[in-house]
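Changelog note: in this version the structure field was regenerated for every chain. One regenerated record is shown below for reference.
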Amino acid sequence: TPFSRGQDTVGVGHMAAHRTPAGQAPSVSMASPPSPMDDNVVKLEHTMETLCHTMRRELLGEFASVKERLLAKHNAKLDELAKSHARELFGLNHELNECRDLLSTYEQCVAEKDQIISNLSGALGRERNKTTQYRQFLAWKAELDNKKREHFTGTMADRYHQHVL
C-alpha cells in the first residue's frame, strides 16, 4: 500500500518513488495500472497539497500584512516621537535663547552699575579731597585771622599804652 508504515510515498500515478526512513536511496517501481483507490489517494494528495499551498500562501500573506501593520505602527510611533522630540528641542532652544538674552541684559545692567559705582567713588574721592583742602584752607585762614587780630590788638595796646603815658 502507498501509506504503509515506515515509508513515504512521493509522486503521482503508477510510478511511485518510495523513501525509506533510514535515508536510503529511493527506488522506482513499476506498479500495475492505477486502481480506483489509488486514484482517490492521488486526488486526496492533490487536494492536501492544494490546501497546504493555499494555507501556506494565506499564512504568509497574513504574516506579511501583520508585519506591514506592525511596521506602520512602529514608523508612526517613531514619527510621533521625532515630532515630540523636535517640539521639545525647539522649546529648549527658545528657552536657551531667552536665557542668553536675559544674561546679556543682566551683564549690561551689572556693567552699568559698576560704571555708576566707579563714577560715584571717583566723585566721592574728589569731594573728600575738596573738603580736606577746604578745611585746611579754613584752618589756615582762621590762624591768619588770629595772627592779624593779635597783631592788631597788640598794636592797639601799644598805641593805647603810648597814648596813656
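Spot check on this record: The CA atoms of residues 120 and 126 lie 10 Å apart. Residues 1-21 have pLDDT under 50 and may be disordered.
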